[in-house]
Automatic annotation (TrEMBL):
Cellular localisation: Membrane
GO process annotations (BP): detection of mechanical stimulus
Entry membrane topology: Multi-pass membrane protein
Organism: Desmophyllum pertusum
Name the UniProt record assigns to this protein: Uncharacterized protein
Family stated for the protein in its record: Belongs to the polycystin family.
Amino acid sequence: MRLVRIKKESCQVPTEIYGITKECYGEYFISNDDKNDYTEGWQNITTYDTEISWDDMQWRYQNGTQLDGYPFWAKLSTYSGGGYVIVLEPGMDNRVRIKKLEDNLWVERHTRAILTEFTIYNAQTNLFCIVTLVAEFPATGAVIPYASIQTARLYDFTDNIMFFVLTCEGIFVLFILFFAYRELKQIYKTGIQAYLKEFWNCVELGIILFTFAAIALYVYRALNIRNVLDLVKHDPFNFKSFQFAGYWDETYTFLLAIVVLLANIKLNKLLRFNKRFSLLASTLKYAYFSLLMFSIIWGIVFTAFTLVAALVFWTHPVQLPQCHRFSDVSPEPHAGEDGVF
């Protein structure tokens, strides 16, 4: 469990009401993240001991590098990868430890989020499930829950077709090297400016660049995953965060998706010789202006509907970046979906 809190005096009390209240607890931003060390009850430390007891660790700040974490995007805000951590280990009376934290007000007015992280592995399906359960505490009060469940296949080669997969990956790399050599040769012959004027050359170059980025990220991802798994094997009962490994796995998947998208666009160049596909392309080209005007009008109406829905149905103060959550579900009523809100 990781607690994120704001600094004391994170906001200023207006002078008009300073005589009524002198305390102000603002919203969370990474810039006002509390990174100080404390003792029990959030008391300031007067002297630092050379040895820190296990119970004192919950009151000492640990940064994202120490926890192998990265900023986490929840409902209300984006929280830093650091915080104040309690590790719930097997064989310990964790209920007593949590009760002690409750008695010492581990969660109080400056707390803005508690993130509970754990990872489970299903050997039958070879899937890791990286779970983050978040309880957010807005400045106005209440608790807002949020859950992030990320499924990843971190063991790439565990079945009988691993050699076939490795062979296909090797052939793919050879093809990319060949295409890169061919495009570099063409750039050298025509010049970079003349080369980039052709749309299909830009698509080809994008495929090559994103593929090289995916290959580099594939190697880095594999090294990061091996490092985390080695730590788990060395000390299986101590918590190791898979959040960073899951993040790179997700980024690698995004890069592959971009490569596949560009490859499908390139496929359209070959399909233009088909009469039916050529007819569809000609129709879209003819109706381009009408479709553009309709898209602009539809976008304005859709944005207005999303903003109204956010103001009416949202249960806590709305910020503009959070309206994307309603834009995700707004098209569902048009498709016949029920129970959207």
